[in-house]
Amino acid sequence: MNTVVRLVAVVLLGSLAGCDYTGPTAPTAASMAPAPPSLPPVPPPVPLVSFPPLSGPSRTFVFDRQVSYPVTYSQGSRFVLYDSGAFALEYPTFTYRGAYRDTNGTIEFLFEFGGRGAAEPWDDATGTLNGDSLTVLYEETMQQNDFENAVYVLMR
Question: Can you list the domains of the chain with their CATH numbers?
């Protein structure tokens, strides 16, 4: 019987040696580090406004007068409204571009300032056509950036 016990002990020791068991280990910094936070999903890119080119048939309205307060920059300016829906606000030394929508004589202007999203409201300025005159009123932020409410008349 001692032979059987010795044989079983040798088999067990041999099995344990083959498993390469080293016993319990202390935790490492890597095993204790918190899982990295999951990143929020990236939203799809916002479609941008496709501004039409400044070309084709157009109407030009030249500065006539201020609406309610004296103007500084608008004297000598003019609006060019292209039939394509593009517009240019031209000053003697600079031109602003954009797009407009005309709904029964009320015009909504959207200026082309870097990367305008297609869902943005077209309320940078509102124009009202009355005969040969175009009255342009800017929203508050535009006014704070020196855009001046003014009346323009159709150039013939």
Answer: 58-154 (2.40.128)
